[in-house]
Specification:
By secondary structure, the protein is α/β, with parallel strands linked by helices. It is built from ten helices and ten strands.
Length: 235
């Protein structure tokens, strides 16, 4: 089953045509990677799916429901959550308060269970649950941003540049967590400049250049594709 269907979307920033007729699908249970250089339009696509930006054409369906005219806050309640580029945790709030902010679409009675589930997936957050978020390391803040998104019990989790600014050892840890989340039943749409890591855990990938998808294939095939290797994998 296709969980997400993006059909021929076009997005403009004023006179700038940022996204040009993009179409792709995300199947239930998959990890799909959108890769491309900085400025290719990856974040714009996620923001359009989330309802923060509007497409002038085409359609977006999530679980067979059209998203075109649904406000962003209601899209979250449908089971679609985004972890933004740069993490954007609430710096002056505690770890646990940040997590509780992610549960605003949930019944109060379910928040404790959601917290315990997040803490089981991110033991470090449990250790630091009373700590002010702004004092966490970059890797811990990324875990917190992911945990906050999981508090809404998403069916589809969209991750925007989760490895940005992290040391290589932390990048590996974050990607291990993403793979584990997927195995536990969360479908993943991953936007990432680290193409090697993104494709290594993905089922399929799409290569984006200047607002257009120029290549789509099985992730393993993209890892061995000469043009992809030269452009994104340093080979």
């Amino acid at each position: 089953m296709e969980m997400l269907e993006v059909n021929s979307i076009n997005v403009y920033y004023g006179n700038i045509h940022a996204i040009k007729g993009v179409s792709f699908t995300v199947g239930e249970g998959e990890i799909i990677s959108l890769i491309g250089a900085n400025g290719a339009g990856k974040t714009t696509i996620l923001q359009t799916i989330s309802g923060l930006l509007k497409s002038t054409t085409g359609s977006i369906y999530f679980m067979e429901q059209p998203l075109h005219n649904i406000p962003a806050y209601k899209i979250v309640s449908l089971g679609l959550a985004q972890v933004p580029e740069g993490r954007h945790v609430f710096q002056q709030m505690s770890v646990e308060e940040n997590l509780e902010m992610g549960a605003y679409t949930q019944e109060k009675s379910s928040i404790f269970g959601s917290l315990e589930l997040v803490y089981s997936r991110f033991p470090r957050l449990k250790e630091r649950r009373k700590q002010i978020a702004g004092t966490l390391s970059g890797g811990e803040q990324q875990m917190l941003a992911m945990g906050r998104a999981l508090m809404s019990k998403p069916k589809l989790l969209m991750l925007d540049e989760p490895s940005m600014g992290l040391a290589p050892i932390l990048v590996e840890e974050i990607f291990d967590i993403i793979a584990t989340l997927n195995k536990s039943g969360v479908t993943i749409l991953l936007v990432e400049q680290n193409a090697q890591m993104a494709l290594s855990i993905a089922d399929r990938g799409y290569v984006l250049e200047t607002g257009k998808i120029v290549l789509a294939s099985d992730a393993k095939e993209l890892l061995t594709n000469d043009s992809v290797r030269k452009a994104y994998l340093g080979g």
